[in-house]
Specification:
It is built from four helices and five strands, in the order βαβαβαββα. The chain is of the alpha/beta class. Strands 1-3-2-4-5 form a five-stranded mixed sheet. Helix 2 links the parallel strand 2 and strand 3.
């Protein structure tokens, strides 16, 4: 388990091991996406505040298109919450720190 205070970058290679246990929030994003850029500092803050409770991760849809396809990501930013590797929630658009904390906390 990677207990880490930073947002973890996921890709096809490290995905399975990274989400197998715990609650995981994944932000599907891209460099060219303006709203995604707005969310990045929020994700950093979330990783700092929830590092000991949940995995806070991001997936660049341009670098890991298979993962985006697997979760049927149609628009970004798209957030997926997994619990022990299974999807329990999915939502789109810019979220505040409080909104993300609340959505993750429901599954802890």
């Amino acid at each position: 388990n990677f207990k880490n205070m930073a947002v973890k970058q996921l890709n096809e290679q490290n995905f399975e091991n990274s989400v197998a246990t715990w609650v995981t929030l994944i932000d599907f994003w891209a460099e060219w996406c303006g709203p995604c850029q707005m969310v990045l500092p929020v994700m950093d803050k979330l990783a700092e505040t929830m590092w000991d409770k949940a995995n806070i991760c991001k997936v660049n849809v341009d670098e890991a298109p298979a993962l985006a396809q697997a979760f049927r990501v149609m628009s970004i930013p798209c957030f997926v919450v997994l619990k022990d590797g299974k999807m329990v929630d999915q939502f789109v658009w810019v979220q505040t720190l409080d909104q993300l904390t609340e959505k993750v906390s429901k599954f802890l």
